[in-house]
Design brief:
globular
Amino acid sequence: MNVRIHQSWKKELDQEFEKEYFKNLINFVKEEYSENKCFPPGPEIFAAFDHSKFEDTKVVILGQDPYHGPGQANGLCFSVKDGITHPPSLINIFKEIETDLDKPIPNTGNLERWADQGVLLLNATLTVRAHQAGSHQKKGWEKFTDKVIKTISEEKENVVFLLWGGYAKKKAILIDDSKHLILTSGHPSPLSANRGYWFGNKHFSKANVYLRQHGKKEITW
């Protein structure tokens, strides 16, 4: 099956693409995109993998599913295209970085600059129907992205996993914490952040300290 994904990942996930569930998933996605408005655009479904190659991945941030408003989703979790207003969760991410690292909030919410440094911005579900949050959940994407997380855990060392909110925290069981760093906190959404579960987690400085300690280049957040 021809899946448009970077060669470095294709090598690691090749067998997954031949499994029955994945073939069914691709058929479902093709049908959805032909009959409904869906996001992100087809060529950007696997964008997270194109920007952060397997061998370069040193941080993983897990989201749930793509933004479902026009022009927002670009295939990277929490990220929006240039010129799009920052969504509430992203504003809170930038506020935490501002406090943690004394960096001003950027004009753009496009996180390609993180992804290009080896931050895998992975949504558990890679597609969504317009204006219908969660509409492509439980169709097979989660099985695929769980395999991605497990593969990183098994094949790599000293990767930082940032798990924000209850959904992401459940993925900790897929990760070997004896050779990776798992950082958890509340979700950056206003509901969670305003209750005190997000701000002050210092995940961005902690990730950089860990990377530095293991001889890896820090992320310019």
